[in-house]
Request: fold
Amino acid sequence: MSSVPEILSTVVERALGAPALIRPCADTKFGDYQANGIMAVAKQRKENPRALAEKIIPQLDLADICEPPTVAGAGFINFKLKPAFVASQLTGEPVPQVANPKTIVIDFSSPNVAKPMHVGHIRSTILGDCLARIGRFLGHRVITDNHIGDWGTQFGMLIVGWKKHRNDAALVADPITELERLYKFVNEHGDRDEAKTELVKLQQGDAENLAIWQKIIELSQHEFAKTYQRLGVTFDHTLGESFYNPQLPGVVADLRQRGIATESEGAICIFVPGSEAPLIIQKADGAFLYGTTDLATLKYRLDHWQPDEIIYVTDARQKQHFQQVFAAGKQWLSSVPDLRHVYFGSILGEDGKPLKTREGTPVKLAQLLDEAEERAFKFVTETKPDLPEATRREIARAVGIGAVKYADLSQNRTTDYIFSWAKMLAMTGNTAPYMQYAYVRVQSIFRKAGNPAVLGHIELTHPAELDLAKHILRFAETLDAVLADDKPNWLTSYLYELAGKFSAFYDSCPVLQTPEPTRSSRLALCRRTADVMKQGLNLLGIEVIEQM
Reply:
């Protein structure tokens, strides 16, 4: 089944003889959708755009779909859908699979080994996961890759700390905290020459140091996995910086041979047009940098996965870096796909500064999730004290984790936002608890009806029914917009509007007290609403619950 914009676009393009862009009408009193692009065609043909719009309207075979189209403004065509057509569209799958699926690689999360995941990782992790979920749901082949930081100068100090200062009991109890302590201790009190010696031994393949390095990675990944499990996030691949390390000399040599990289003040650089500073791929002392690894990573992904798109989900501070890497990659490699840096702003505290602890350190992600669950548990206990504790804990887990995710995903990712427990756990407004409760409210109708899976013929006779049904049909185009702009806040806004339209429908249109066949029709509309709510929240990585 095609989406409504696709159906209208096909008909308009056939009559116009050129592409037409179908968008929702800004003011629904004029219609549901509007065709744009007519003015551009009229200009090319040296015609009056309004006259051209009026000329093609009689050629539009839309009698079964909408009311007679009308011309607006300088040459727009408005379409108002017929209730019977809207009802017929609700019986099929609400979201069609894409006609031409792509292979999309999404690089996200990327924590550093031996360091705790902090609040800054939440944005990359859940944003990347959301885009992956939506891409797969629409029928694309999505490959997720967690490009962890598992190589670099810090391992010299970690190895010294491991050999001389480690606390085995602490490693068992809290590996990341102990590894972080070791690094800080050696960095502040250790012998830097000794750390350099141990690093060189690691780089040269010393068996003992390689074993320590591998153990540090295993301990770190085990701890990362706990957080990912809580967030419901998985990866197809975890190819860290070390995976590409053997390839870096060859990357630099090839770039130099092709004349793309040149020596400058002892370093090997790529001078990118429009960028003041060059992309340095090898320092004068022979060390490689992030840009070198990113170019090796790009080549590997092209060679092994043949993607149509590669999406990098990192914070906005890396914008210039990726602009340089993308430009260098296009100079170096043939058939480079669409490369996109999906950047995001910072999470701020109530003081408007980056969110930190009282000690001035970044808030650890695990602690943030713990607090979210505890705050949600307190709320559930106050509102549902009679529920068993295990049930309250499970509800609190879904609500607390969901609240953190939704609060982040509902923001425009390119901006900073202020972290507020009160707002994210509120039962009103555009929040996860509100949406989860909206789903519970719809489900309660089916429990009262004694039929949890009501689907059937739908008649749309009341304006509130029609308004809700039209909004349900926009689920597919909303997901398309999210993937086109890499902005999940389009989906959170859609779901919030869906809950509002359902509430207006439920207040105006009795369901269980209405005689047949209207009762079954409205139950079917409720069922479709619940399905879209559940699917939409799932695509955000948020669980629905049956009671709150």
